[in-house]
Amino acid sequence: xxxxxxxxxxxxxxxxxxxxxxxxxxxxxxxxxxxxxxxxxxxxxxxxxxxxxxxxxxxxxxxxxxxxxxxxxxxxxxxxxxxxxxxxxxxxxxxxxxxxxxxxxxxxxxxxxxxxxxxxxxxxxxxxxxxxxxxxxxxxxxxxxxxxxxxxxxxxxxxxxxxxxxxxxxxxxxxxxxxxxxxxxxxxxxxxxxxxxxxxxxxxxxxxxxxxxxxxxxxxxxxxxxxxxxxxxxxxxxxxxxxxxxxxxxxxxxxxxxxxxxxxxxxxxxxxxxxxxxxxxxxxxxxxxxxxxxxxxxxxxxxxxxxxxxxxxxxxxxxxxxxxxxxxxxxxxxxxxxxxxxxxxxxxxxxxxxxxxxxxxxxxxxxxxxxxxxxxxxxxxxxxxxxxxxxxxxxxxxxxxxxxxxxxxxxxxxxxxxxxxxxxxxxxxxxxxxxxxxxxxxx
Length: 443
Prior knowledge:
CATH superfamily of the largest domain: TonB
CATH topology of the largest domain: TolA/TonB C-terminal domain
Number of strands: 11
CATH architecture of the largest domain: 2-Layer Sandwich
Strand order of the largest sheet: 8-7-9-10
CATH class of the largest domain: Alpha Beta
Number of helices: 18
């Protein structure tokens, strides 16, 4: 079981709360009763690390007599939740037990499984939905770079969630995620209020990311920041604060990156640094493309030796069926090109691009570290995940989180469920979430 020393460095940009770090610190101080309580409190979040550590404590007789049945049940749960070492340890422990004890393991495992409110991630997880309609912006206002940030040479981004009315006006805005926390939020929201979208038949909820940087972001600045704050090291040790911070920095890296990447879960985990090619301009194939008439959008495609499409992954995902019907077995080019994976960009005119894809491990993605932080009890990471993943959205709805209540309520009203939506908005207002008042007034 990994031991984490007391951390002198905690980022003020993120909320500190009882989480995996608290449990690890208690364990390091040999306060096994507190550590056990904190680890158990994280089981509903599906924390594989908490389950694994509880198994290790039962096996090592830490704060309790040795209990191999208990250890095996926790290791089994940790393995189900994705801990890389848990399955091997489970097999070693279960081999030492008789038939009666093995039955007890299965009974205890069933009890533990029932406690998990956020199940392990599926290979193809449905995406949390914002609204049934999306419209393009017709007017954008560039944000002003704050003087304070310019003096510090700071860089960052703000992700905003907003409500647009039928006329295309932005009516309610909230910061979903930002880095550094609070530095660029006001400037981003002020700019967003000046955006105008295409008119439509109904309101819709959308998300936008605005980057703040004085000139192109230098990769060495990101690497230096990660190294100075030991983000990779402490994130790997299980600090939710550092995991959330790493998720934000990787978001910024992805915004600034010129390469095209695809996540390969089969690749072994890597704890940085990001490779140089990540920030280099992606290799674009200088070939003419033959696409279906008026095809518009982007997709990851697998091409065979004849340049035919054998596999399609659409962006955005809701266009998957349409893109498969229009692209599968389509010969994109008559020129000879290497077989492999590419990202296709098409804007409906003659300007199309085909870009080679690089495969990266999950640990190079913001979602991976936000998921880890969320399972470790970090509320802001849970809210970010709730905007992307229905598992976390449902969990925070059960927890009556005001932010998720409000935006879920707004979506229900847009989809025609007025009473159910207003109920959620009223609950969010009662909990003091100011944006819920703006949403209710607009809806």
